[in-house]
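pasting for ref
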Amino acid sequence: MPYRIAGIDVHKRMLAVAIADVEVVGEFAVERRQFGRAPSQLRVLAEWLVEQQTEEGVMESTAQYWKPVWAALERPARYLVATTPRQRPANVKEAIVRRRGFRNVRLVSETVAEFNYQPCACGQEYLVVVVRKQLVWERRGRVIDTETRYLFYLTNQWTWSTAEVVFFANDRCNQENLVEQLKNGVPALRAPVNTLEANWAYMVIGALALSLKVWLALLQPRLTYGQRLLAMELRTFVQEVMLLPCQIVRTGRSLVYRLLQWNPWVNMLCGVREHLGRLCLT
């Protein structure tokens, strides 16, 4: 009986596959083909292996090319149920949308991938996590279109898994607080003029004020200060951290800054001043 074995050599951009019948006497007849690394090409490879009645497969890879690029994103429960789980009610809204013939988008699957990225002006690499969402548009229960969306997350948390990075960025409280601060803290989401470029520049300038608070929180050596700054409203941040009365005295070749008011955030600002001096930023 024939006994066919497939050898798969995994390269960075393609897979080289060879199939041979090892039960024949004499020289083996080898069939060779090449496949891409896209999911559609992997499905074609699987169909070809079944068609050739392959019994065994041997895979050889250099580095970590054998690992799949995209992995399924499994979202855990938001909280643990201490009592008996309740039955989820029926989705009444979706039934109404389907009955009235409106367009409805539905999530089919979520996959996640990661890679290292180093900007040209940076001296270190960062971790980039990419979430790919497969969506379908439906009308009256029939699929009328498909769509793929990509979300990118840039972080320096190397010890976190890809799921932890995504869940931290998608945390409901942090996202709602961010939108509220951009809308009401700094009016960055308003459109005061009638041109797209001017409104974009206005939004960027307004968001820079909020970025100052975020970067100050990320520079904190103590985690408690950083969390409090991230959750602080911009109005409170301006009153307690930015609007500190200070007297500037020039003595000889030095400047002396005298704080005329004290609050619990003064120690934090002094610590950040020393930390920035040690970082030697240019």
